[in-house]
């Protein structure tokens, strides 16, 4: 399957089943990163999901004929970190056959039932450190 087929046939129906409203899902959201004075680079995340108007996770899609590589993971995480309004706490990378979830700040892979418990950024209310730190 192509990225578009994975998005339309697998991911979007799944997000709908999870209770995401169409207004909480952005497809191919473009963003710009400033690299010094006057130098900018443009990128595009495949899917961005929000909840309560806050970025929740980025999904990076890959063709099902390729294995997920570290470059694919790095790409998704860089997109999640580059969002101007808020960093997305989680990054999901999938080729439709294999799906991996990462904490966008620590870059660590997350598994299990309670992924939100494994992200300090999420638990700290989208802050990178606590007042004690």
Quick tags:
6-stranded mixed beta sheet, globular, alpha+beta
What does this protein look like?
The chain is α+β, with helices and mostly antiparallel strands and 133 residues long. 23% of the residues lie in helices and 32% in strands. The protein is built from three helices and six strands. It has a six-stranded mixed β-sheet, sandwiched between helices. α2 links the parallel β3 and β4. It is globular. The chain starts with a helix and ends in a 10-residue tail after the last helix.
- Rounded to an integer, what's the Rg over CA atoms? 15 Å
* Helix and strand element order: HEEEHEEEH
Question: In one word, what is the shape?
Answer: globular
Major beta-sheet overview: 6 strands, mixed
Q: Output the strand order for the largest sheet.
A: 1-2-3-4-5-6
Count up the helices: 3
Classification by helices and strands? alpha+beta
Low-confidence stretches: none
Q: What's the count of strands?
A: 6
Secondary structure: helix percent: 10-25%
Q: N-to-C terminal Cα separation, in Å?
A: 46 Å
Q: What is the beta-strand fraction?
A: 25-35%
Topology, please?
Elements: H1 3-17, E1 25-34, E2 40-51, E3 54-61, H2 70-81, E4 90-94, E5 99-103, E6 109-110, H3 120-123
Parallel strand pairs: 3-4
Antiparallel strand pairs: 1-2, 2-3, 4-5, 5-6
Brief write-up:
This protein has 133 residues and is of the alpha+beta class. The protein is built from three helices and six strands; from the N terminus they run αβββαβββα.
């Amino acid at each position: 399957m192509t990225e578009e087929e994975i998005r339309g046939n697998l991911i979007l129906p799944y997000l709908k089943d999870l209770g995401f409203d169409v207004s909480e899902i952005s497809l191919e959201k473009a963003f710009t990163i400033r690299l010094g004075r006057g130098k900018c680079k443009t990128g595009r995340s495949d899917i961005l999901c929000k909840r309560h108007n806050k970025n929740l996770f980025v999904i990076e899609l890959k063709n099902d004929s390729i294995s997920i590589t570290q470059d694919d993971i790095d790409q998704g995480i860089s997109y999640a970190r580059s969002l101007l309004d808020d960093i997305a706490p989680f990054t999901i990378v999938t080729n439709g056959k294999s799906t991996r979830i990462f904490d966008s700040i620590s870059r660590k892979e997350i598994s299990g039932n309670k992924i939100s418990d494994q992200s300090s950024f999420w638990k700290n209310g989208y802050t990178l450190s606590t007042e004690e730190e």
